């Protein structure tokens, strides 16, 4: 179909080498307890399983397993935004001059972290990038031929929240994808907006939140009549939404003054169900709010200077990690959807000391699976079978394979899916039928 | 050789789709001038060519071309550190509690940016991560069996520099790879240290700085007798080093009180050449400076609690971008080494309006090259041949291919390497021999 260039080859080889890991080499370990001040289920599980480390409330470091999930979510989002929307990736700074915010009147918003240059000059940490992207694009935008334009980044954001108690779902420091679009007119903006909505829908399906995530009508804040959110059902969320199951749509409770029926079938609110939910993404018409603050104009076909119409589209990468952990888990631990799991297969070996064949078979299977490109975490630690099983449930990889003297006696391996309860004994050469 | 899993396949397809771009769609444009306050050659060229945007002195945003280079450097470094050293990748927070710095006595260092939680609590922005990684590792380290251990990240750092005048080569906000290693004893640390030295040497060779980068003996600051730097020769650097060409080694001028001859051949300083250079990386013995501050201990074979011996190893990712731009450039613009070039080939088309065959041939060649996995930027803008040629020289991709009515008349394409002056007319089907 195509040949691989040096670059692509390097990338492939890199991922393949990353396909396998011995758990004894992983520096993180499973913990019995999370910090006592950690209230959120998602953070408690992620800390106990060794995915994240809490630095302070709302601020986490990502450990090897957690970083792999974070990067998988980021790459899924990157691909969708790049290929469906043709948006161009950049990386904007975290240090922002305060004067940019004075121009838009956002210098007083209370979630800003403030700091100062030692040489003089007030700065804020980026909690959003309108004040940076608009002056940046202004340097390049001249004609209507340059529009529409989409610019996005996957970048750390900082919000000085008074309270941070939802774990990874509402951080003071978090990873976010933010996309900004620029248009000649409302009609062009509307069609781009619909494309982003479709791209977001595909992303939530890919990460296993398709069923529980609702396109939600919400208020537009100070500079728009409306906005739209993607709300994922969870008791740990901070919003209330009214859900129409028939249309798979919702209305944010705060918007029910303006929107009094389901926006799809027009069912009255009395017929809709009130649910607790978490905002995982939003899409927002900015109109000319920011382009007018910085005089971001283009020359139209008649040669007249016009303000660009803008939209912004946020999607929380680390928040999704938190939401997936919160929703895809049970009393035993995490249950990762396959596309974002840190590894696909958890290979457990029991009774290595009693039977040297266990190690030999496991090594061969580990080599075969990783060579075939399946990502395998091999629990080769010197701990009991019970501890390995409990650890596998907590870490939550999609497929658990056990090799033990018992399975060898039947010339088989044991396979269990994390999200199912039954355990199968199957011949090793039939494994590929189950792993997909 | 091996099959590709779903994950790897997605990654490959992603890179291949990224293999080609029409320059008319790139939102950045070439500029005649950089901002008047920009003094550094690297930043001036990178701004004019549309690779970066200056937010304030020492703070840059990366635009699509610049972001591609940044990610290529980051991936080269990531692969080397992961595969040669077996170090594990994490992503630590940028917000750090000030109290961690009070424990190490580094709370007064003047390059820290300070900020405050709205709920109370003093924070600093990470300029280095010893104060975070040591408490983090402490939560997992128990036995000598866990050592040696290497943990690294590629993360934004913040340094509150009084002056920032070297463009991307000394930023207030910059991307850095930092690696921390943990050991039982000095001998184990020494052998790890040597492996990092070898890995760094390979990285500088890969990014085209092998010849001009010297392993340099330097002072150890307040808590070590010595350290080592990798210094790249450039008049824009901020250090003076004494270079021994014979041994390809150097001594930092500030260290000449302790080291009075070439560390290789023991040639006296009078025989060495004094050169201006830029520190692109350092490797540093930390001994127990940080492990004692946080009581980072492990149980040794005799069951005794011992402090871990540490090393830290920095390598500037965005600084390398700046150094490569500074060094690999001429009066016409940038000259990217192939492994870090944003695209490999710059395809220029002239005279499309006069001859429709130009567009047709170019489309076929663009498809063929990208399908073969060569990364191609096609300058399909409606501008003059002269403007396209000047732009290609400024952007500095390794290979320039021209298709015009003139080349078509001879059934050939024109090929020029950015770092060579001669232009070849060659048959299209022989191109692959030249592109490697």
Q: What topology emerges from the helices and strands here?
A:
Two copies of one chain form a homodimer.
Chain A: H1 6-17, E1 20-22, H2 41-48, E2 52-56, E3 59-62, H3 64-85, E4 88-89, E5 95-97, H4 98-104, E6 114-116, E7 122-125, H5 130-138, E8 149-158, E9 173-183, H6 186-206, E10 213-218, E11 227-233, E12 239-244, E13 249-252, E14 273-287, H7 289-293, E15 297-299, E16 305-307, E17 309-316, H8 317-327, E18 329-330, E19 333-334, E20 345-349, H9 356-371, E21 376-379, H10 385-395, E22 399-403, H11 405-409, E23 413-417, E24 423-426, H12 431-435
Parallel strand pairs in A: 1-21, 4-8, 10-13, 20-21, 20-22
Antiparallel strand pairs in A: 2-3, 5-7, 6-7, 8-9, 9-17, 10-11, 11-14, 12-13, 12-14, 14-17, 15-16, 18-19, 22-23, 23-24
Helix pairs in contact in A: 2-8, 3-6, 3-8
Defining traits:
homodimer, 436 residues, alpha+beta, Rossmann fold, 6-stranded mixed beta sheet, 5-stranded mixed barrel, 24 strands, disordered N terminus
CATH H level, superfamily name of the largest domain in chain A: Bira Bifunctional Protein, Domain 2
- Mean pLDDT of chain A, to the nearest integer, reads 93
Distance between the termini of chain A: 22 Å
Most extensive interface between two protein chains, with residue counts: A-B, 88 and 86 residues
Q: How many helices of chain A does DSSP assign?
A: 12
Radius of gyration of chain A: 25 Å
CATH second-level architecture of the largest domain in chain A = 2-Layer Sandwich
The largest sheet of chain A is:
6 strands, mixed
Text of the CATH class of the largest domain in chain A = Alpha Beta
Oligomer: homodimer
Shape of chain A: elongated
What is the number of strand segments of chain A? 24
- Structural class estimated from helices and strands of chain A: alpha+beta
Instruction: Write out the strand line-up for the largest beta sheet of chain A, numbering strands in chain order.
Output: 1-21-20-22-23-24
- Uncertain regions spanning at least 5 consecutive residues of chain A: 1-14
Quote the beta fraction of chain A.
25-35%
Helix content of chain A: 25-40%
CATH topology of the largest domain in chain A: BirA Bifunctional Protein, domain 2
């Amino acid at each position: 179909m195509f040949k691989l260039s040096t670059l692509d080859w390097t990338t492939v080889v890199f991922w393949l080498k990353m396909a396998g890991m011995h758990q004894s080499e992983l520096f993180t370990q499973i913990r019995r307890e999370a910090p006592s001040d950690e209230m959120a289920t998602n953070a408690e599980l992620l800390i106990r399983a060794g995915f994240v480390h809490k630095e302070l409330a709302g601020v986490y470091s990502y450990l090897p397993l957690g970083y792999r999930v974070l990067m998988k979510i980021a790459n899924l989002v990157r691909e969708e935004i790049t290929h469906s929307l043709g948006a161009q990736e950049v990386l904007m700074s975290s240090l922002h001059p305060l004067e940019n915010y004075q121009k838009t009147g956002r210098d007083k918003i209370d979630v800003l972290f403030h700091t100062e240059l030692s040489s003089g000059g007030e700065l804020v940490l980026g909690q959003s990038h309108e004040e940076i992207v608009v002056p940046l694009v202004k340097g390049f935008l001249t004609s209507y031929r340059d529009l529409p334009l989409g610019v996005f980044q996957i970048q750390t954001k900082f919000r000085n929240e008074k309270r941070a108690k939802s774990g990874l779902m509402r951080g003071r420091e978090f990873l976010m994808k933010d996309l900004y679009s620029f248009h000649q007119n409302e009609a062009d903006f509307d069609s781009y907006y619909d494309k982003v909505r479709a791209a977001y829908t595909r992303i939530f399906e890919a990460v296993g939140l398709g069923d529980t995530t609702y396109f939600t009508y919400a208020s537009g804040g100070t500079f728009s009549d409306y906005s739209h959110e993607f709300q994922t059902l969870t008791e740990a969320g901070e919003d209330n939404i009214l859900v129409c199951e028939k249309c798979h749509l919702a209305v944010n409770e705060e918007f029910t003054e303006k929107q009094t029926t389901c926006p799809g079938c027009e069912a009255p609110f009395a017929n809709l169900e009130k649910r607790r939910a978490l905002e995982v993404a939003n899409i927002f018409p900015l109109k000319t709010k920011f382009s007018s603050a910085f005089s971001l104009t283009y020359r139209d076909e008649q040669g007249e200077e016009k303000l660009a119409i803008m939209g912004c589209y946020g999607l929380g990468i680390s928040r999704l990690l938190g939401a997936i952990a919160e929703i895809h888990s049970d009393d035993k631990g995490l249950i990762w959807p396959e596309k974002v799991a840190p590894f696909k297969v958890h290979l457990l070996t029991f009774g290595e000391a009693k039977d040297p064949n266990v190690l030999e078979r496991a090594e061969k299977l580990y080599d075969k699976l990783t060579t075939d490109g399946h990502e395998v975490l091999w629990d080769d630690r010197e701990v009991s079978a019970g501890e390995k099983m409990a650890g596998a449930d907590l870490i939550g990889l999609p497929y658990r394979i056990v090799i033990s003297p018992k399975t060898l006696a039947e010339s088989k391996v044991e396979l269990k899916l994390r999200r199912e309860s039954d355990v199968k004994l199957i011949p090793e050469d039939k494994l590929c039928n189950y792993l997909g």
